[in-house]
Amino acid sequence: MPSDAADDWLARRDQIIGLGERSFRKSYYPQLRQNIDRLERFRTLLDHTSDFVILLALPEGLVADANAALGRLLGEPADALIGRPFESLGIAEASAMLDALRREMPGPPGDRETPSHSIAFEFGPPGACICLELSYCLAVVDERYYGVLVGRDVTERRRNEEMVAALLAEKEALLDNALVGIVMLRNRQIVSCNRRFEDIFGYGPGAMIGLSMRALIPSEEAYILAGEAAYGAFGHNMSVGDSLLMVKADGSSFWAEATGRALDPARPQEGSIWIFTDISERKAAEERATYLAYYDVLTGLPNRSLVQDRMLQAAAVADASGRKVALLMVDLDRFKTINDTLGHSVGDQLLVEVAKRLKLCLRESDTLCRQGGDEFLILLPGLPDAEACVTHLARLTEGLAQPFSLKALELEVTVSMGIAIYPDDGTDLGTLLKKADMAMFRAKDAGRNTHRFFNEEMNEEAEERLAMHFNLRRALDAGQFVLHYQPQIEIASGLLVGAEALLRWNHPDLGLVSPARFIPQAEESGLIVPIGEWVLRVACREAANWQRLGMRDVVVAVNLSALQFRRGDIEASVTRALDESGLDPALLELELTESILIHDTEKVLATVMRLKHMGIRLSIDDFGTGYSSLAYLKRFRVDKLKIDQSFIRDLASDPDDAAIVRAVIQMARSLGLRTIAEGVESQQVLDHLRLYRCDEAQGYLLSRPVPVADFVAAYRQARATS
Ligand code: C2E
Ligand code: MG
Ligand code: MG
Question: How, if at all, do strands 240-247 and 189-193 pair?
């Protein structure tokens, strides 16, 4: 209390006491004294509270009383305020408060409940203003209206509240803008989570609260496993971290990395905090990186890093089995010219096509990789010896023989190859690469389009074998192949019913070369496929011509190689040959060997069935030498069995052969198949066959295989004499 106000009060108190003493000394004094003491205590209490209290006389709105706190607030003694209009105190909301109080006071004052109001406002000059909170209500004292206002400075509290709100907002912003999903779980249910967590899982704001983690894990099993792992670790006061497959709101799944920690390791169920990151992109990037590290983008082939791995594996297998591994360095000849003249896009395309072709020539176990530029590396594991590599070389050369058609361009591609052999030339990839590279350069020096072994001796051996292959290729291109025809007669009537087309190589130096000498090589290198196609075309063309020459119903029999079934498109070749020649399919007979039928049976069966559907006849060549099985003869709906000449030759003198041949003929009859005996060289044999009721015969006795002109002439002569 300011001192002059206190003095004033003391003076007034003495005055009152004096009055009282004089007037009511005897009877009222004690009571008065008590009241005054109470009032004094109350006054002291009021003046010592930090809240300020104002009593307003209503309806005038004058300050009837105020405590010291208000005086302090306004910087004036409280007493100086008494009698002043409330609205003059500088409180902005004063009029509004007065209006509210005045509105509540109509009617005679009595004991009635009046509402308490509360208002908060700023007070003071800008910059130094404080925040006041004020509650006020109407009061009635001695039938007069008063407004009782109690206020306090809440600046500090306000500031604290604002700070807490700002801190919370900051935290929330921090959580929501975090690049990781954050979630708090209780009993594996989501208690709270940040926005990123909802985004990762594709849920709307707040939609995940209360959700069980089961909804985010694809299977019950995975859910149980994840739980066991987490609680196991939490129990040991450890955090967990794992990549998990999770489910989004739309049901799609993705990979997430989750790390979690229990709030209280003793009671992990009660709460754990988890951080989730969507690692799908990282996983994809990792896969891509692995791909890039191991594969060539242009051709999709593995690059050298993978060859290193494969080489190690191949070497281990080779060491254990005593086998060899060949490393081939393949370089395209004159690729730079193609690139420079036709452009890089053609160059790139050519590399892609070359890669595809090379791949087709290799086995499943081989590795083809792009070493860079126009260089390819080939790893051939499991070779019984170094020479075995030659077959593969021939296949590769053959595979590249056809020109490449790119953007209406026909490009001929040749390659130079260098070969190093594990373990003969080296035991590590580095050494083998160096040697294969040196050998490749020697191939280039030798005029390109060839190969060189690192080991010179190997070159000589391979030379001979490969020479055959290249000669055969040249023979086909230069038209050195011819077909000879060997008549087939019906034994009962003696009539010519067909002819077998037999391949001959009309070698410029060697003369006619027997197929027995070159067909195995042609099969080895795959060259039999184009050669076989050629045979089909020529045989059909000539047989169609026989029809025009009046040689009615003479069937042409063509030998097929197993490789034509496996590697070539035999159906397309046959269809083309028939279409081109116009030959009636019923006049074409295909000679298959038993080995064709037992290999990859289902696929061959389907092909054979389609050929049969076209009306073509089928016979089994060299019957009796293979794995004859009645079951597949029936399944493949063969028309004819061609009994192998080894049983026929000595038929007349060898009772065993005779027994076999008789049995085969009888069996064939019971299956409804025709029989033909090949290699019939004597009349005696033919007589026996007639006795056994063999249907047809073919052999030197009747005719050797002859050029087509001779065959036609012989037919005409036979007709003329019969
Ligand atoms: P093959 O299909 O069993 O042909 C019968 C072979 O026996 C032919 O030998 C034929 O000249 C020979 N020959 C015929 N009658 C007699 C005889 O009375 N006595 C003797 N000792 N031999 C006889 P060729 O023409 O040397 O053919 C050998 C094999 O070459 C053929 O055996 C066949 O497997 C294969 N071949 C021939 N031409 C082709 C062809 O165009 N494509 C395929 N893939 N293989 C063919
Ligand atoms: Mg034959
Ligand atoms: Mg035969």
Answer: unpaired
- Shared domain for 248 and 337, answered yes or no, is no
Amino acid identity, position 411: L
Which residue has a Cα nearest atom 37 of ligand 1? 502
Atom of ligand 1 nearest to the CA of 515: 30
Q: Which residues form the pocket of ligand 1, taking CB atoms under 6 Å from any ligand atom? A: 486, 502-503, 514-516, 519, 532, 535, 559-561, 591, 621-622, 645, 678-681, 699-700, 705
Please check whether residue 40 lies inside any domain of the structure: no
**Residue position matching structure tokens 């070749």:** 573
The CATH number assigned to the domain holding 70 equals 3.30.450.20
Ligand 2 center–CA 559 separation, angstroms: 5
Q: How far is the CA of 506 from the centre of ligand 1 (A)?
A: 16
Could you identify the residue written with the tokens 């080991």? Answer: 455
Residue 663 lies in a domain: no
Segments in the chain below pLDDT 70: 1-6, 18-29, 107-113, 461, 464-465, 568, 628, 722
User: pLDDT (tens digit, 9 = 90+) per residue, 576-593?
Assistant: 999 999 999 999 999 998
Q: 579, 600, 695: which is closest to 608 by C-alpha?
A: 600
Query: Are residues 186 and 135 part of one domain?
Result: no
Do residue 437 and residue 313 come from a single domain?
Answer: yes
Residue-range definition of the domain harbouring residue 493:
468-643+704-721
- The residue contributing the CA closest to ligand 1 atom 17 is 679
Could you tell me the two tokens for 215?
């909804």
Instruction: Please give the model's pTM, rounded to 2 decimal places.
Output: 0.51
What is the distance in A from the centroid of ligand 2 to the CA of 500? 7
